[in-house]
Amino acid sequence: MTLWDDSPALDLSLKANKHPGRPVSPVDKEKTAEVNQSQKQVSDSNLDELIQRSQQGQLEAFEGLYNLYKNKVYGLAYSLTRNQQTAEDLTQDIFIKIFSAIQEVNQPDYFPAWVYRLSLNTCYSYLRRQRTLDEKLSLLTPAEESQNGRDFDSQPGDLARAIQEALCYLPEKLRMVFVLHEVEGLTHEEIAGLLNCQAGTSKSQLFKARLKLRKILRKKNLLGGKSHEMP
Fold first, then answer.
1. What string of DSSP letters covers 60-84?
2. Percent of the chain with pLDDT over 70
3. If I label 207, which of 4, 9, 169, 218 is the partner at 20 to 30 A Cα–Cα?
4. Are 29 and 16 in contact (CB under 8 A)?
5. What is the arithmetic mean of pLDDT over 165-187?
């Protein structure tokens, strides 16, 4: 399984942008490119060494692992939660779990996949808890207010930003499949392995997610003609 590809199918995670409402500047892009290159060099040269030294209790080695994966973990968390503070909190929780379980890593080649699955499971658990809370709060909130209480910052023609905002309206499972396929670039077979479902279920949920997103974007007058159709 190839995880965290440098060229995902559709980059909606704003990994380089700490302020989602602000466009990514050329400086941000340059810094992100430098970080990605640095991470690639670390990954290619001494990932095994960093893991071994971390298992020996060397904090500077674990800091190296943190620097190697923090943007990827945060990007996944933000893609799934659509909230900067929540993504930062989840990222911290995930690295605490990684640090606590680092002694269990005995096959460094599988470390990236292990970090990915741990990150996904942590985010998934958060979303389940949040869904339960939202269901309880919805009983206290008028239906019309809950449907119309959120405004879009996007403008017509800014499809990528509009999709990011529309993702907040998707049910948890549909959002999960959409992010894993379109943002993370995973195949339906890979998604099925991560979510313990059939590949056909993943395809069906992606289809439903796209339909719902189109409906939301058209309702908000943010989906233009054929040139702006979603993938």
1. HHHHHHHHHHHHHHHHHHHHHH--H
2. 64
3. 4
4. yes
5. 88
Q: How far apart are CA 182 and CA 9, in angstroms?
A: 5
CA 65 to chain centre: 19
Contact 186, 205 (CB under 8 A): no
Tell whether the torsion through CA atoms of 221, 152, 125 and 77 is positive or negative. Answer: positive
Q: Do 102 and 62 form a contact (C-beta atoms < 8 A)?
A: yes
- For the chain, the C-alpha Rg in angstroms (whole number) is 19
Quote the CA–CA distance of 124 and 96 in Å, as a whole number. Answer: 17
Q: Write out pLDDT tens, residues 78-105.
A: 988 889 999 999 999 999 999 999 999 9
The topology under which CATH files domain 13-149 is: Rna Polymerase Sigma Factor; Chain: A (1.10.1740)
- Fold that domain 153-224 belongs to in CATH: Arc Repressor Mutant, subunit A (1.10.10)
Q: Decide: pTM greater than 0.90.
A: no
Query: What is the DSSP secondary-structure string of 120-175?
Result: HHHHHHHHHHHHHHHHHHHTTS-HHHHHHS------TT-HHHHHHHHGGGS-HHHH
By residue count, the chain amounts to 231
Tally DSSP H helices, then E strands, for the chain.
9, 0
Which uninterrupted H or E stretch holds 90? helix 84-101
